[in-house]
Design brief:
The complex is a heterotrimer of chains A (259), B (401) and C (162). Chain B is an all-alpha fold. Chain C is globular, with a radius of gyration of 20 Å. Classes of the chains: A alpha+beta (259), B mainly alpha (401), C mainly alpha (162).
């Protein structure tokens, strides 16, 4: 059983298991937590009982992380997911919406003939065949084994061709010098960035993203698309979910219901 | 046909120094703009997360496209063995290299991290047309350099045709690659079209020859050398054909889009209600960039042939900038469709026309690239023996029959 | 430039390269002093993840290697992680606050400044330990929030429970 499976079916799990996950997390962020006593616990023990990905283990293509967004639950005027993402990654307002980075945004859609409206969050769709990765001259745009599409900012030269290629307008360019970036989200001038699907949270086994946690309506479900027993896979199997611009054949990891 | 004597220009006059000084001034301005953009970040430009590529890219792509076109005169001489063009070939090759260098520098200095040039030339993703372009551009400079050498050194002259053919094929691939930067973009309505590649090739013929003509007219007139009507006539007729061909491709591109309902939105934006973009398209690209030059070139008034040809060439260059502005800025500022049939609104300019007004820094950077290209040509004319002392009608006589 | 001038330039360049390299390879005047005799800030931990001499010579390789493993494979073990280096090597500046990379008391800067080797890690990465982000002024509430999340695991328990 993988960690996400565990986390999404949390209500069926004992509280002791929850505590163990948190122990694991405390272990991982040991450097930050004053409770150094926690360090005395053997990591091996924790790894056996909690099946979160051990820190030394590489991500694998057995997982395909994704999001399912239920647009019927997405409340008009609510911006909680955006705020949570900005807080999690230290995104701040600098020179206004034209040039500021936006990893997630809420989009309001209105049918031109019927007047039907719906709201939904938009972020990097973490495509299986990402155009941004295809066009990147240096290979800085890449897809991790577990399906998360990222920018290696160490080798990004800031040509912005990926932004031209992305059909979802998911990427932002850093237009100015940044200061006080967070340890979990290194970001810098002259490079391109986008939603990382909270990879730092995924890697430490949180089993969720900042936006999913923040959504009061539970409109966002994070999970493993490859794991048939995961909540996201079950929801998709029962109620289906559409891909945005599916005609492009990119197979995004983010799916939408209620479109 | 008398023997042609190739000489370098004197380059001692005060106007020559003034020319160098003027170009140097623009290069300095470009460098200041680069430092400013590098230090402040791109927020001081008009570019944003919506209009991602701006005026620097218009300049850079124009120069790169024109570079491959500038080589045409040489190609006609070496590949198609038209002896008449042979005396014009060296300048053509030098101009091609110069324009490409100018364009590449603008492209490079606009990068978010120009300090990582070493990354761009050590990490490659071969699925990216950009990667191929990096190789095509640098390779072009090398191949045209060798080609130029075969034209200038009698010991290797026998290889001119091989080198010229290689350079010609290379330049066709190069412009195909440049056009494919847009042709290969599935995301945006205005791009994702196979016609982009051949259209860029045709555009390069036209823009490159226009610049070549201006440089030729200027170098002969400013140095008091004789340039016969016959030479100007042949080249301006050729330019006319290229302008018409570019118009044809533009027509085919827009007709195809107009046939598909899916593209009506973007077509209406560019052709009808796009404000500045629409004006630049109709006035800059079509009227001043194509129709007027065609009229000037094909209604010859022999007494003012050079003047008309010069004006027409300048207009073609203006039209070239307009064309690329419409393709680049027009293509990007039109919103992408998220869900067909739905209008989108958000904090990230979904569903609205993105605003773009280029900043002075972008213009300075672009002009710096133009000045670099021109200063290379100017210095090359001074250092190397590139152009014949006279291209009067006597030289051309055997070809007139 | 004539041949003589060229070779003179070559010699100077070679000397500069050599002197930079020998500094980087750890030929220091003492364990806690840098090349100029400045005292190197003392870290919190008992000992470093690698021997001091090894770290002096090779820290950039370790960091680079780890960076790629984290970036591409999601491997987030503590060994050679830049965040962990900073967590341990944080030192107070004169004003008592944790030194920033622009100050000579910052562990990395203390050496990089005196040998004039450009340090661009912290244009993007945090130059202070994770714990410092709870002490930010109010305008940085965004950072504060994230630190709370990191330091108190129970916050994360409020994640989506279906």
């Amino acid at each position: 059983m993988n960690p996400i499976d565990q986390n999404t079916d949390m209500n069926q799990k004992s509280t002791s298991k929850l505590n163990k996950i948190d122990q694991y997390r405390r272990q991982f962020v040991g450097g930050t937590v004053a409770a150094t006593a926690g360090l005395a616990l053997a990591p091996g023990l924790l790894l056996q009982t909690v099946q979160a990905k051990p820190a030394e283990q590489a991500v694998s293509s057995k997982n395909r992380w994704g999001l399912l967004i239920d647009t019927t639950k997405c409340a008009d005027g609510c911006n909680d997911c955006v705020t949570a993402c900005n807080q999690e990654h230290g995104l701040r307002e600098i020179h206004g919406p034209a040039t500021d980075a936006q990893w997630i945004r809420t989009v309001k859609l209105k049918n031109k003939s019927t007047g039907h409206t719906l709201n939904m969050p938009m972020m990097c769709q973490h495509c299986e065949n990402p155009p941004c990765v295809d066009v990147c001259p240096t290979g800085a745009s890449f897809k991790r084994e577990d399906g998360i599409v990222l920018v290696d900012k160490h080798i990004c030269i800031g040509c912005r061709y990926c932004m031209m290629a992305c059909p979802y307008k998911a990427r932002s360019f850093i237009h100015e010098t940044l200061t006080d970036q967070l340890p979990v989200a290194p970001r810098g001038k002259g490079t391109v960035e986008a939603c990382t699907l909270c990879m730092h949270k995924v890697d430490r086994g949180d089993g969720t993203t900042a936006c999913a946690t923040a959504c009061k309506e539970k409109a966002i479900t994070f999970g493993d698309l490859n794991d048939k027993n995961s909540l996201i896979a079950k929801k998709l199997a029962t109620n289906g979910g559409r891909q945005l611009r599916a005609e492009l054949g990119l197979n995004p990891g983010v799916r939408y219901q209620g479109l | 046909m008398k023997k042609l004597r190739y000489t370098s220009i004197d380059g001692k006059s005060s106007s020559f120094l003034a020319l160098l000084g003027g170009l140097g001034f623009f290069i300095l301005l470009g460098f200041i703009a680069f430092l400013q953009m590098e230090h402040e970040g791109h927020h001081i430009t008009g570019m944003s997360n919506q209009v991602i590529w701006g005026l620097p890219h218009v300049f850079a792509i124009f120069l790169i496209v024109a570079a491959s076109g500038a080589l045409n005169v040489a190609s006609i001489a070496s590949v198609f063995n038209q002896k008449f063009y042979k005396p014009l070939a060296k300048l053509s090759a030098v101009l091609a290299i110069a324009l490409l260098v100018g364009g590449l520098i603008v492209l490079l200095l606009d990068l978010g991290r120009p300090d990582r040039l070493i990354v761009a030339i050590t990490y490659y993703n071969f699925k990216s047309i950009f990667t191929w372009n990096i190789l095509l551009y640098t390779g072009f400079i090398g191949i045209v350099g060798v080609y130029l050498w075969t034209m200038m050194d009698w010991q290797v002259e026998k290889y001119t045709r091989i080198a010229g053919t290689a350079a010609f094929i290379w330049r066709l691939i190069l412009t195909t690659g440049t056009g494919s930067i847009f042709g290969f973009l599935v995301s945006r309505q205005a791009y994702d079209a196979a016609i982009m590649a051949p259209m860029f090739v045709i555009m390069s013929f036209s823009f490159g020859l226009a610049i070549y003509l201006l440089v030729l007219l200027a170098s002969y007139s400013w140095t008091g050398r004789e340039l016969g009507d016959y030479v100007v006539n042949r080249l301006k007729n050729l330019l006319g054909v290229f302008i018409a061909a570019t118009l044809y491709f533009t027509l085919a591109y827009h007709l195809t889009n107009l046939y598909a309902t899916e593209h009506h939105g973007v077509e209406a934006y560019i052709l009808l209600n796009g404000g500045a973009i629409t004006a630049i398209f109709w006035i800059g690209q079509i009227l001043l960039g194509s129709i007027v030059p065609l009229a000037l070139l094909y209604c010859p008034r022999p007494a003012r042939l050079r003047k008309m040809t010069g004006i027409a060439s300048a207009l073609v260059i203006l039209g070239g900038f307009s064309t690329l502005y419409v393709i680049l800025i027009g293509g990007q500022s039109f919103p992408m469709t998220l869900i067909p049939g739905y209008e989108a609104t958000s904090t990230f300019s979904d569903g609205v026309i993105a605003q773009y007004s280029p900043s002075i820094w972008e213009f300075m950077l672009g002009m710096g690239g133009v000045a670099i290209a021109l200063i290379i040509v100017t210095l090359a004319l001074k250092i190397f023996r590139l152009i014949p002392e006279s291209l009067d009608d006597n030289f051309a006589k055997p070809h007139q029959s | 430039m004539n041949t003589h001038q060229f070779f003179r330039l070559l010699t100077i360049t070679a000397f500069l390269l050599w002197s930079t390299m020998s500094l980087a390879s750890g030929q220091y005047t003492g364990p806690d002093r840098d090349a100029n005799g400045n005292i190197v800030p003392t870290p919190k931990g008992e000992k470093c993840v690698e021997p001091t001499a090894d770290m002096r010579a090779n820290h950039m390789q370790y960091l680079l290697h780890k960076r790629d493993k984290t970036m591409y494979q999601g491997i987030r073990s503590k060994q050679h992680s830049l965040v962990e280096c900073i967590n341990c090597h944080a030192t107070p500046a004169n004003d008592g606050k944790i030194a920033r990379v622009s100050e000579s008391k910052h562990f990395c800067a203390s050496c990089h400044l005196s040998v004039s080797v450009k340090l661009d890690c912290f244009e993007c990465h945090a130059d202070r330990p994770v714990s410092a982000f709870s002490q930010l002024p109010a305008r940085d509430f965004i950072a504060l929030q994230s630190e709370t999340d990191l330091a108190k695991p129970q916050v994360a328990m409020h994640r989506e429970v279906q």
